[in-house]
Amino acid sequence: MTEFSTRTVFFISDGTGITAETLGHSLLAQFPDMRFKQVRLPFVDSIEKARDCATRIREAGRSDGTRPIVFNSLVGPELVAGLRNADALFLDLFERFIEPLEQELGQRSTHTVGRFHGIADSLDYKNRIEAINFALAHDDGVSHAELDVSDVILVGVSRSGKTPTSLYLAMQFGVKAANYPLIPEDFERSKLPTELHKHRRKLFGLTISAERLSQIRQERRPDSVYASLDNCHYEIDAARRLMERERIPWLDSTARSIEEIATKIMQDVHLNKRGY
Amino acid sequence: MTEFSTRTVFFISDGTGITAETLGHSLLAQFPDMRFKQVRLPFVDSIEKARDCATRIREAGRSDGTRPIVFNSLVGPELVAGLRNADALFLDLFERFIEPLEQELGQRSTHTVGRFHGIADSLDYKNRIEAINFALAHDDGVSHAELDVSDVILVGVSRSGKTPTSLYLAMQFGVKAANYPLIPEDFERSKLPTELHKHRRKLFGLTISAERLSQIRQERRPDSVYASLDNCHYEIDAARRLMERERIPWLDSTARSIEEIATKIMQDVHLNKRGY
């Protein structure tokens, strides 16, 4: 087995497979020298489909010359039996944890197929969809209506990461995040936009390095003043001074993913959604 | 222990905790009669922080009168030791799987802290952010530019779920999804909008029940013709006929979450992002 051999990795689920894939990605990232070919097999909800999966696993093993790795979140014993009819390293997500949970809780689990992602009717889900619509309606300072029902209002210079962060907060956490650009007019007046003043306690700032900002803006408006390094330096410094003066908590988005930024925001502003 | 006692559940991670939380939610959903108070403790990257977690776990146990459940994705032995200095059911996400993976791959894992979500520089991450910007720029038929670089174009009547699905496809899978409304003018002409014709093979339709659609539209424009059940029936039937005539694959979004819809679309149109 050479260091750079390719392994096929399957994520198998009776639902979307997103749970298996999320855990699988985290684990595979611990082996950065390996190359993995990743295959998602969702909605495996019959014995026939489980057997089809076994066939695909066998074929991948033959073609790779090494046995595949399978992250499995199927729960029914018949399904699992159908699946395991192939040579692979099977890592069962649920099997390992369900039993200790049953013992601890003194209850049997429902073994419900694809339960987590089949929640389109739940209140939690409805909140998430509402929050997405809210983020879209309140992107880039488009609307000042209903800012009082927002959970957080992101501020920062154009292209500092506000929009994807707002959408992620909505999608993952059901948090209503508006976002509002800080623009040269605000810096000249040295004041927050009037609309934001009464919501000061909900504000959270994003900043970014001037180099990175210039690079991002170049892609959108090449060779503009807007994208120039000088202008980016000016805007970022002015925005930072404004945030410090107004005591707005802020975070540097430069080397952080939207997952990390969103999680930090949740932590810092103690958003009370879903019990956090 | 009564059936409805509350348990505190902690999701603990040296990164965002999203992996622990995703798996935890799936597992807890198997116990629908229980009430769980959920607490995310992210960015636990020092022994002091791990010990603080242990304190919070102990306090929760005292206040609940039952020991908490901990989904732990910390990997370093010192961190884990600091954390385990409390009475709880510890479910270690990584510990269970890393060892069999190391054996299978013949490699040691890097045990890298928060590796998965610290990937803001990776190509994969850049694709996701680009896809989010693409989805926003091509929401609701706003722009016809660059439709040729889209991976999929969602079509359907207004409020059938196109926008959140496009954003989820972008955020989770890095897929560039445009979306395009089917409107009464299209039905009268009995034809797809001209711009879409040359991209027919990328089209994917969403439909929805008339009752659900009317309900969603009522929330936005109460007592309008747009929201009336009759009009919703008309639009949905006409859109479905149009999609059938044009042989556009479609899916009913009524009882499905955006995760399920997005996964089905990935499966049906064989999107080749990230090796699927």
Largest interface: A-B, 79 and 79 residues
Low-confidence stretches of chain A: none
Structural class of chain A: alpha/beta
Question: Could you give the distance between the termini of chain A?
Answer: 46 Å
Helix content of chain A: 40-55%
What global shape of chain A is seen?
Answer: elongated
Number of domains of chain A: 2
Protein name (chains A, B): Putative phosphoenolpyruvate synthase regulatory protein
Binding site for ADP (chains A, B): 156-163
Enzyme class (chains A, B): transferase
Keywords (chains A, B): Kinase, Nucleotide-binding, Serine/threonine-protein kinase, Transferase
Structure characteristics:
homodimer; 276 residues; alpha/beta; Rossmann fold; 2 domains; four-stranded parallel sheet; 8 strands; 14% strand; elongated
